[in-house]
DNA sequence: GCCTGTGAAATGGTTCACAGCC
DNA sequence: GGCTGTGAACCATTTCACAGGC
């Protein structure tokens, strides 16, 4: 594996996800080859930025030609480690948790949901999208049995830390937190926060700025 | 208004949203005053970072004391422009669109959903969460009538650009795009992209890194 | 004494410009 | 000729360190 073990900027990783998205769309449109310039325009970034980003992981392009779309998608996916199946579990079976469990795209993208957990006795035992809801306290026990690599927290904010603790105890090293609360984890556990109010705030701020400067 | 008309980093705005989240949680716990050091620890950032961020908008703290939680929340909300009601509309009434329409938190946070649009004739006329679904082509007409400031796109990716065009035509200056596709807008329109697969990819990458370095 | 606000220093990321290669 | 890959130059953001004020 082409692993240049230098530090890779977080921003680069975020852009890589965007590149995949755009490249898959180009692929659907039947495009075979793409230059960094054209890809850059679609992603609203600088062409050198793309070349630098990709260079962290290897040499994927052909000089004088560009990048082969299909190959580049595979290369990026391999570089990010998303060319395989990841076993995930959802903790917190409310509206959002159910929506995620029913979302087919997860499986299509290699993220298989293999566990559904909640601490509400009324929900335990219920079948959601083919999975039995299990008591959160039994997370470690279940994880040992089925293997859970990524945890998705969809509890109310006040229960997010407890859900986190169960996941960490179970040996999970990656967490996506949809709950609007900060959580504490050991250094070897990665957390990503998803909260679209943050995005709404950002848009509101920018619109306000533009209105004022008129 | 304390408007230091210098450029404010995008990263600062993102952190401001986090500060609000944490401060509101502190407020619920009955905390009156907080130091930049303590707030920093909770948000996993550097204390000077917080002081610098806040300084873009004004002097909200008291030397030797810290920040008054209640006041700081109000000040930040005012600074971001989220201390008022924003009229929003959802374009694309699928699973996600419906979920957002039924989400009470929007109204609580000042984002009132005043329009629901879709281009599917079978959906037009349907009542979702008290709103009649209207043909996307009539967006401008409706916007002139009710006023729409922020658009939320929840269409499939191939229809995202058309939804965008309708919104831009209607004079909307801020867009949240949940569709997994890039969209083109004029310079005076702000777009925020929400795609949790990007976050899943980021987590997968970090977990992969940690596994490899063991 | 303590904690904020802020210029100055350090860090890290982005863009430029061109060498290298098809 | 054209487009990638990359060191060097540039720019922005973060962190430090301390002055300012309760």
Automatic annotation (TrEMBL), chains A, B:
It is found in: Cytoplasm. Keywords: Cytoplasm, DNA-binding, NAD, Repressor, Transcription, Transcription regulation. InterPro entries: CoA-bd, NAD(P)-bd_dom_sf, Rex_actinobacterial-type, Rex_DNA-bd_C_dom, Tscrpt_rep_Rex, WH-like_DNA-bd_sf, WH_DNA-bd_sf. Residues 81-182 form the CoA-binding domain. Residues 18-57 bind DNA. One of its GO terms (molecular function) is DNA-binding transcription factor activity. NAD(+) binds at residues 92-97. GO terms for biological process: negative regulation of DNA-templated transcription; response to redox state. Pfam families: CoA_binding, Put_DNA-bind_N. SUPFAM superfamilies: NAD(P)-binding Rossmann-fold domains (SSF51735), Winged helix' DNA-binding domain (SSF46785). It comes from the Bacteria. GO terms for cellular component: cytoplasm. Modulates transcription in response to changes in cellular NADH/NAD(+) redox state. Homodimer. NCBIfam families: PRK05472.1-3 (NF003989), PRK05472.2-1 (NF003992), PRK05472.2-2 (NF003993), PRK05472.2-3 (NF003994), PRK05472.2-4 (NF003995), PRK05472.2-5 (NF003996). Belongs to the transcriptional regulatory Rex family. This is Redox-sensing transcriptional repressor Rex.
């Amino acid at each position: 594996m082409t692993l240049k073990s230098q530090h890779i900027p977080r921003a680069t990783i975020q852009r890589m996800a965007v590149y995949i998205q755009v490249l898959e769309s180009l692929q659907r449109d039947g495009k075979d080859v793409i230059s960094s310039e054209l890809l850059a325009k679609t992603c609203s970034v600088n062409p050198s930025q793309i070349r630098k980003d990709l260079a962290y992981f290897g040499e994927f392009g052909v000089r004088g030609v560009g990048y082969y779309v299909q190959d580049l998608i595979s290369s990026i996916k391999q570089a990010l480690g998303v060319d395989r199946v990841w076993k995930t579990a959802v903790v917190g079976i409310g509206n959002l948790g159910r929506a995620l469990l029913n979302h087919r795209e997860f499986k299509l993208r290699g993220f298989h949901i293999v566990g559904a957990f909640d601490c509400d006795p009324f929900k335990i035992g219920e079948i959601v999208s083919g999975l039995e809801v299990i008591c959160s306290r039994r997370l470690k026990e279940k994880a040992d049995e089925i293997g859970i690599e990524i945890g998705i927290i969809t509890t109310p904010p006040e229960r997010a830390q407890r859900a986190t603790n169960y996941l960490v105890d179970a040996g999970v090293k990656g967490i996506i937190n949809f709950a609007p609360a900060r959580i504490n984890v050991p250094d070897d556990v990665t957390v990503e926060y998803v909260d679209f109010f943050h995005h709404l705030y950002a848009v509101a701020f920018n619109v306000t700025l533009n209105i004022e400067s008129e």
